[in-house]
TrEMBL record:
Pfam families, sorted: FtsX, MacB_PCD
Entry annotated with the keyword Membrane: yes
Organism placement in taxonomy: Bacteria, Pseudomonadati, Acidobacteriota, Terriglobia, Terriglobales
Any GO CC annotation of this UniProt entry: plasma membrane
InterPro entries the record matches: ABC3_permease_C, MacB_PCD, Membrane_comp_ABC_pdt
Start and end residues of each ABC3 transporter permease C-terminal domain: 272-389, 748-862
Name the UniProt record assigns to this protein: ABC3 transporter permease protein domain-containing protein
Bilayer topology: Multi-pass membrane protein
Subcellular locations according to the entry: Cell membrane
The MacB-like periplasmic core domain, residue ranges: 27-200
Segments traversing the membrane: 269-289, 322-343, 363-384, 418-435, 447-470, 500-519, 744-768, 789-816, 836-853
Major subcellular location class: membrane
Transferase among keywords: no
Length: 869
């Protein structure tokens, strides 16, 4: 036969596509939905994540912050100037304590002074003033903005003057909210916000003053106009850590642990959803194309009998696959654009914001390329199955025996296995590249491909074992089972039935869908705890021991206060040594040495459990008995960040000095503090007996309705004028809203991904209808009724669904546990009712989909079906 040109092969492929439009619907549907899910989820999540990261930056007002208690040396200042010259911007923030006074009050008041550059600060977010005005207008060399409590305590009003240092400044506004209130100093005293120029004029920055300085950095925006990437932020942080070894360097991701964890969880899940869409689309393509090629074996056999070579036939079907992949991919891109456009419309009312929509060509190119490539890749195995088979054996494909010598059959099988193995390796390599592109991480792509290969191998092995034991079971119980049941079970391993491949495909799909659902549910549940309405948003500093009972009573009867107030005991202390090494000789990691001379120690409310919200990440918390014995054997638990700065691990000895008392404690545990509770004010926790008899200052945390915070502050001042009230309600509400938005988007996108996966799996199952046509004809010709045929197929569908569901659910829980605990650092809990429901739903979906696609065949006469064939 002469060489087959590409134009001729394309005409044959196109003619076959036109004559079998209905049969290729499943292929197009699988590719289109896979690409739509991939492009829609990835495109929208990219826009939404960019918007969320901008809001996360507003909580620190910058990309990166460097905090130090010392003035910069000329070399350090030159280094900062060099960093700024390379791109981006820098703005200083100075915080210190001072005394303020007024003509209306003879007594001076301790205040918390914050000086900023009003022309630059804040880089992200907004300072809210009352009356509303730009911060650059409010802060001049002669004016300041103050907290409401300062007006209350000094009996002032807007327009009056307040004296700071050697100068008097006019009050032009009150500070309602600052974007970096959570990341700044929680110092005693009402807030005074002024410009850097005004601070210099006040004379408060005398030599040796204990002022804390924060240097805020903003990196240049990317070419697309969005904020700088995490890699660029991390690089700047590393440079600053080298340049300022004594400073505490943090980036916007560390400004609020709950928000950071939520963003990381959302990013990980969105990546997982994109990869799931990719794999499920590939599964649908594989099953549908296998069904099509199995049905075209007669045509292939005829072409080979007429002298066509395997390469020529493969050229026809590869071009056909290319056309299907291209058509499905283009349709998927159009649907993906629709998905990306519709998500903001559906979520706008729920989220109270709409992400900027951008058509990112890279996202759609990735989706189209992934759809086309996976379609081509997953067509290789069924094509290779027929490459080295003689026409006479293709025509007798349903016959199990062969007259060929054993050696010939073995050689043929080895050649086919080698070709299939090469195709599988190629598929995994290409999927690794696609996954790396989709997730923007080579490591994730490698893990994804390795995990997929392992799961597929186990699923195929389990499918083979299931069919083997089913054959053995029927061999022993054949005479004791109803004929319909026996026939339905026998269908699973009849010649030509790809039950093993279908079981593997269904199991993989169930695993992917349920793993996404379990992971998103765990992430959402934990994030919803972060948005609870009873978390403290008002913090109280410097409560005396004899005031604790009165403060509790006042808060209990104050309108607007919700939940139980958190009151935390704190003992001031110094760190003397670690394992005998004096504090002056310790190697600290970005921690000013003077901090060791002023540390807070507390004890937990429950003797044998960490403070509310804190989680042990290393070591073990002490028991009730160990707490009782702690006077002789003191123990201490340390917040993770402090332990990292000090290079401390469980088992080491730390010596503290509180007043005139010294004690040496063994590090029992390292814990992750929960910044949403008052307990985060102290980074060292010991059992209560260790601190018995030492002077205690109490900190408090309470949740108050935003509208009632002013009344609460006034009531506290009237009864306890020495207590400092820190109002972060507005800032925490911003955090709460962002976390809520993350949870809504995760749930919405997960639901869409799960829906897409179900549709793809349904199309895979429905694709088997063309393999059942001949069997239905034979059964009806032999006298089988519709009810009997329906019973046989229902049993077959149900067993497929139950077995695939069981195997898929086992791996779904293993995958979800691995993702949640080791990748996203969330808790995993096995949910028996969820798994039972998913198992039953898988069986029901398999049966329903099988019959939705095949019921029409039962109503046709055998001759009509044969004519269609």
């Amino acid at each position: 036969m002469p060489s087959l040109s590409y134009s001729t092969a394309a005409r044959i492929a196109a003619r076959e596509l036109r004559s079998s439009r209905g049969k290729f619907t499943f292929v197009l549907l699988s590719v289109a939905i896979g690409v739509a899910a991939l492009t829609g989820v990835r495109g929208f999540s990219s826009s939404f994540r960019t918007m969320l990261l901008l809001r996360a930056r507003s909580i620190m007002a910058a990309d990166v912050s460097a905090r130090t208690t010392q003035q910069l040396t000329p070399q350090e200042q030159a280094g900062l100037d060099k960093l700024v010259a390379a791109g981006g911007d820098e703005s200083p923030v100075t915080e210190l304590l001072s005394m303020a006074s007024s003509t209306a009050s003879l007594d001076p008041l301790l205040v918390s002074v914050k000086a900023v550059d009003p022309e630059k600060y804040p880089f992200y977010g907004e300072v809210v003033l009352s009356p509303v005005m730009p911060i650059a207008q409010a802060l001049t060399p002669a004016t300041v903005a103050v907290g409401d409590d300062l007006l209350l305590r000094l009996h002032l009003k807007i327009g009056d003057s307040v004296k700071l240092g050697t100068h008097t400044y006019r009050i032009v506004a009150t500070v309602v909210d600052e974007p970096d209130r959570l990341s700044g100093s929680f110092a005693a005293g009402p807030r005074v916000l002024l410009s850097q120029t005004a601070l210099v004029d006040s004379g408060l920055l005398a030599a040796g003053s204990h002022a804390a300085r924060r240097y805020l950095f903003k990196l240049p925006a990317t070419k697309q106009g969005s904020a700088s990437s995490d890699d660029v932020v991390a690089a700047l942080k590393t440079q600053l850590e080298t340049l300022l070894p004594e400073a505490q360097i943090t980036d916007y991701r560390e400004a609020n642990p709950a928000l950071t964890k939520g963003l990381d969880g959302a990013t990980g899940l969105l990546t997982l959803m994109s990869l799931v869409a990719l794999v499920l689309g590939a599964v649908g393509v594989a099953m549908a194309m296998r069904a099509h090629l199995q049905q075209r074996l007669d045509s292939i056999a005829i072409m080979k009998s007429l002298g066509a070579g395997s390469g020529q036939i493969m050229k026809i079907y590869l071009l056909q696959t290319l056309l299907l992949g291209l058509g499905g991919g283009l349709l998927g891109v159009v649907l993906g654009i629709g998905v990306q456009l519709s998500f903001p419309l559906f979520l706008a009312k729920l989220l109270h914001l709409t992400p900027d929509f951008r058509l990112d060509p890279r996202v759609f190119a990735t989706g189209l390329g992934a759809g086309l490539l996976t379609t081509l890749l997953f067509t290789l195995p069924p094509l290779l199955d027929i490459r080295n088979v003689r026409p006479i054996l293709i025509l007798r494909r349903a016959v199990e025996t062969s007259d060929d010598p054993f050696t010939a059959r073995l050689a043929r099988k080895l050649r086919g296995s080698l070709a299939q193995l090469s195709a599988i390796v190629l598929i995994l390599v290409c999927l690794t590249l696609i996954a790396s592109r989709v997730s923007d991480s080579r490591q994730v792509g490698g893990y994804f491909a390795a995990g997929l290969a392992l799961v597929l191998l186990v699923l195929l092995a389990m499918s083979w074992l299931t069919l083997y034991f089913l054959r053995v079971f029927l061999g022993r119980t054949r005479l004791h089972l109803p004929s319909a049941v026996r026939h339905g079970l026998s269908n699973l391993y009849r010649p030509g039935n790809p039950s093993a491949a279908l079981l593997a495909a269904l199991g993989l799909g169930v695993m992917q869908i349920v793993a996404v659902y379990i992971a998103q549910r765990a992430v959402v549940q934990e994030m919803q705890i972060s948005t609870a309405a009873n978390l403290p948003n008002i913090f109280l500093l410097d409560i005396a021991t004899d005031e604790v009972a009165g403060v509790r009573s006042l808060l209990a009867h104050q309108s607007g206060v919700q939940g139980t107030p958190e009151i935390l005991p704190v003992v001031g202390s110094r760190l003397l040594s670690i394992d005998g090494v004096p504090a002056s000789q310790l190697k600290l990691q970005h921690l000013p040495r003077r901090v060791l001379q002023s540390i807070n120690i507390t004890w937990p409310a429950t003797a044998d459990a960490p403070p509310l919200g804190d989680k042990v990440v290393e070591g073990e918390w002490w028991t009730t008995q160990q707490s009782a014995d702690s006077v002789q054997h003191p123990l201490v638990a340390i917040a993770r960040q402090a332990a990292d700065h000090l290079h401390v691990h469980p088992g080491q000895q730390m010596t503290f000095a509180a007043q005139d008392t010294q004690f040496t404690a063994t590090v029992a545990a390292i814990y992750e503090p929960d910044s949403r509770h008052a307990s985060s004010r102290a980074e060292f926790v010991v059992p209560q007996p260790v601190l018995a008899g030492l002077p205690v200052v109490w900190y408090g945390g309470v949740h108050c309705d935003a509208a009632a915070t002013a009344l609460l502050q006034r009531a506290l001042y009237e009864h306890y004028p020495t207590i400092t009230v820190i109002n972060v309600a507005a800032t925490l509400e911003t955090v709460r809203q962002v976390i809520l938005q993350i949870t809504y988007v995760i749930q919405f996108l997960a639901a869409f991904s799960i829906f897409a996966g179900i549709v793809i799996l349904a199309s895979s199952i429905a694709g088997t209808r063309y393999r059942r046509i001949r069997e239905v004809v034979v059964l009806k010709t032999l006298g089988a009724t519709r009810v009997r045929i329906a019973t046989i197929f229902s049993i077959e569908f149900a067993v497929l669904g139950l077995v695939a569901g069981a195997v898929g659910l086992v791996f779904a829980n293993l995958l979800a546990r691995l993702i949640l605990i080791h990748a996203l650092h969330f808790e995993y809990h096995f949910q028996p009712w969820l798994n039972l429901g998913a198992w039953a739903a898988t069986a029901a979906l398999t049966v329903a989909t099988g019959w939705l696609a095949s019921h029409r065949i039962l109503g046709q006469k055998p001759l009509e079906v044969l004519r269609e064939e």
